[in-house]
Fold this sequence. Notes:
Elements: H1 2-19, E1 24-34, E2 37-46, E3 51-53, E4 67-70, H2 72-75, E5 85-94, E6 100-115, E7 122-133, E8 140-149, H3 168-189, H4 193-196, H5 198-206, H6 213-242, H7 246-252, H8 254-271, H9 281-288, H10 297-310, H11 316-326, H12 331-360, H13 367-394, H14 401-419, H15 443-459, H16 490-494, E9 519-520, H17 523-533, E10 537-542, H18 547-555, H19 560-569, E11 571-576, E12 589-590, E13 597-598, H20 601-613, E14 620-624, H21 642-659
Helix pairs in contact: 3-12, 5-12, 5-13, 6-10, 6-12, 8-13, 11-12, 13-14, 14-15, 19-21
Amino acid sequence: MKHLLSLLLLLSAFAAQAQTKAPVSFSTQFERSSDTSGFLVVKAAMEKGFQLFSVKRRGADDPFISSIRLDSAGSALQQASDTATELGTLLAVPSGSGDHYRAFADSVTFKIPLHLPADFAGNISGSITWLGLIGEEFPNGEESFTVEVPAPGAPASGETESAPATEQPEEEKSLWTIFLEGFLAGLGAFIMPCIYAMVPVTVSFFTKRSKTRKQGITNAAVYAGSIIGIFTLIGFLITILFGKGALNDMASSAWFNVGVFVLFMVFGISFLGAFEITLPASWSNKIDSKSGLNSYSGIFFLALTLVIVSFSCTVPFIGALTVLIAKGSFWAPLVGFFAFSLALALPFAIFTVFPSLLNNMAKSGGWLNTIKVSLGFIELALALKFLSSADLAYHWGLLDREVYLSLWIVIFGLLGLYLLGKLKFHHDDELPKNDYGQPYLSVTRLFFAIAALSFTVYMIPGLWGAPLNGISAWLPEMKTQDFKLNAGTGQAAAYAAPQGPQPKKYTDLLESEIPGVQSFFDYEEALAAARELKKPLMIDFTGHSCANCRKMEREVLSNPEVMQRLQNDFVVVSLYVDDKHPLPESEWKQSKLDGRTLKRMGEMNLDFEVELTNNNAQPYYVFVDNNGKLLVQEGYGYDPDIQKFLQHLDRVKARFAETQ
């Protein structure tokens, strides 16, 4: 009876133990880093309030550890000098003796290095002996595991093959997702510098065309429809016919940028009152006799200009779509283009209606003409941006930063004087007069004059090298500045170039646009430097005509903490995807993506970006290890959040440390 009672108690204890859920769960897989090396990856997920002890022993007699042991076959793949890497939040938990326990909360990943014979494939088995802490208790247990190690090139353990392309439900779901993502990306794109440059152009263009509310609504519909149609169909077809980089090449080409410069200059001069833009009478009569296209052809071409301008600093979403097209996908990029253009067209439809509202308001005092002239000044200033883009891409050296700023200072200074009534054009009305017969300024006009003159004063220090972060997206690159009053001083000088490899290729053409940070301009040269310095490599995919790139450089990469981390912890290479510098024939390469012969620096860098990241957007910051392998799969695009970028740098640095 006594023995029977003992047996029942023992069985009850085992049953209770079996019914108690372990406070930690494990998953294991193999992660290959090369043909002859890899990692056993053990992931632990803990319940709330439970901490799992580290697998690293502080001393020979440290009892408070967990352990991961391999069987004899697995142990043969380890080396005595190897140590496990632990990724998680390591806590210092006070113990009763005044010391601290070292334990992880929430989750932790252990990575154990393995050294494999060539073409090794098979299973690795072992056990996890875990020890934890919850309150004053020390739960513990043991779990065995078996991990498959596939042959080199085969999917790793835990990975699954892609679903067949013929599965219609998954495709439909992805199309809806792409549509939603495209619509949100289109709304976000409107606030980017390269997009809102078209706002004053749109308003000024339609002030003459939208005389009534009905005309305004009709023009808005035509304009929005043209944007959607051109963006969706023309962008899609150009990419199919000419490749993934066709839109980027078009937006950065000399003929396009110079053409837009001339177009904006003509509009600006016209709105200053020099002449009226009209078609010859014979043309107008012929066009008017055929469906009234005279009213809509100009709208169509303005929409075409907006679409192509938007691709000069395209967002990552559109970059991914053009790559999908280049790889043969059809419906997904078409839906994405449509959703993006639909969202982008909506704000411009509103700005198209706006001039008709102005025209319906009282016209006393000629204030509507004042708006047109003011927009004419602004268009003259914006025109210089496009000429500068071509100048930088082709290295003409016509419009350096000082010349550009001087022209802007004069233009906006004259705008301020015009608003004060000190300048007159032949179609301007006299200022209104007060009860005493004296001309006077309205308070509204005075405030606009103050804004224009204040902006003029703000730009003046830029002539001596001030960064002018507020308008950095619109200015030529700092490398074109001939005189910098603060050269060798300030934050940039605080982070001196490190001892070690120095950039040599293309330094006669390019300079670092990241203040205080040394940049390479050739990928292979930078990768060799990263190997020598044992640092991760940050690839900065950028462009001369990329307004968002200048904004990131001046608002994020110029931050002292970001500069210091980039200079101390990374090697940086800036690859310009729109540079037209011709390469010597010995450096020409054949594209692995479409077989084209790459003869210019920019097209080679763009091809490399697409091959590496499946994206062709700028700015795009990608991080690789010393073998050129991506440290994190996702790149970092346009996002002027300094703390977010710092967190991304920390994540990359930790990942790089794991691979060493």
